[in-house]
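Note to self: the last two entries modelled the partners one at a time, which told us nothing about the interface. This time every component goes in together.
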Amino acid sequence: MKNTNFIQRSIIGALSFLRDSIFSQEQAMRPGFLQSLDPRIKLITFLVFIVQVLFARSLWELSFFYSLCLILAVFSKIKLGFFLLRTWIFIPLFSLFIAVPAILSFFSPGEVLFSRNILGLEFMVTRQGVDSALFFVLRVASSVSFAVLLSITTRHFELLRVLRVFKIPQIFVMTLGTSYRYVYLFVEMTRNTYLAIKSRVGILAHYKSGQNIVAWNIACLWSRSVHLNEEVYKAMLSRGYQGEALAWVDFKIRTRDFFWLLGVVLLGMTNLVIRS
Amino acid sequence: MDNMIFELKNVYFSYLGKFPALNGIDIKIQKGQKISIVGANGSGKSSFLQILDGLIFADSGSVNFYGRELNEKNFNDDKFCRSFRQKVGFVFQNPDVQLFCPTVQEDIVFGPLHLGVEKKLIERRLERLVSILGLQGLLDRIPHQLSIGEKRKVAIASTLIIEPEILILDEPTAGLDPLTTRHIIDLLIDTGASGKTIITATHDLHIVEEISDIVYVFGCEKKIASFGKASCILNDMELLKANNLLHIHSHRHKDTVHVHSHRPSGQGGASSIGLDTHIDHH
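The predicted structure of the combined assembly is written out below.
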């Protein structure tokens, strides 16, 4: 049955997004290669990869990094189908649409590969255009793939804690962590409120009353969040919080992390030497 | 005098200055006592506990902790505040409120970490509590993913790790299955046996006799309706009925319709296994 109800679609969409993020937490808990690394080292090395991708000058170089990313995904017990779907679904596809005009001679003049006459206009695809479009798409795809691989092989709370490595204030990290924790609760509340409304008024509601329901739901959630905010603050005070946030850090760097870091640094240096 | 922990005199408290929550409360709590606060919904139990924990402050009357008044001014003194928080632990009614960190482990260690306890000592306490409460495998979980029983245990662990002298619990068994309820009661009995002062608000009368020496009944007028030994209070049918803690209902057993009140047994044996005494009127 076609689902035409806006509220229902929004709530189901939000829930499915959150389920996906919980699912990706499951990937992060698998006993794979990347999962076993110290999150701090992993983040730093992935940033090194992304920077190298951004400064890559040839298609071969980009292809190497993209292949490396896929190999790392396989060694980390991530299903390739799942990974490709997750990485290609948004940004690279979007970039592909942007890159398509670049393959034409209007924007990239050069050696013509083939041409078509459409409505009296001559569309010519050039080798230089294809190369630059491929280069652009592969660069975006590689960067996004590294970022996605990092996020699905690292538990979200660990990523939050790693932010401190970059001297981001603890109060900011703590606020982000608390928001992350409560977003689930609020989505659950919204879902239950929606179900309660649905059980009383049914799915079909006049669009005006539908607007009222959404507005009332937003106001209600706002009021609940304000109340919860006060209660959570009391719970923090009760356990000794005095305005200065402290973090529990139990990361440990092991031999494996050291060798991984060394490997990435050597790879980066080799890349620099080859380029120069 | 040294044994006197809390002393409340004629305490009034209202929300927004117009919705009264406590209406003239006088109470004295001594070291090592095990106290239950019983009362119907909205009788002011939670507000009372929050006043004891210095989270809200009385509109009038006085609240003293070891002879020092609990007011905002004193809580602005970091030394007093830290010492108070180390001595008094509070388990909230809603564990979702108490578990605000991204993981269970961070939630449990939040208290001692902010109270300046040494990291190695925190690790030792954490290891011990995890083993006592059976929290193995939960430490890296997101609190939202836990069951209500697990959340409650984690909330208790996050308070016990501070090793407070006084433990305040707001409805610790609400919404729990019988086995988890039993587990938590056993934990409270063990904690009480170690000499801690335990103050529990509940309307689950089945657990009261086991976890308390003295019971305070909060009435609908937001004041103490009665207090005394658990066995005396639990046997006072009229008192319980007047304060919405006892109800009479009818139901069918095969061909006979019974009309009886639900009340906890005055004797330890029956209440300890959670049986209701039926008083038949036919």
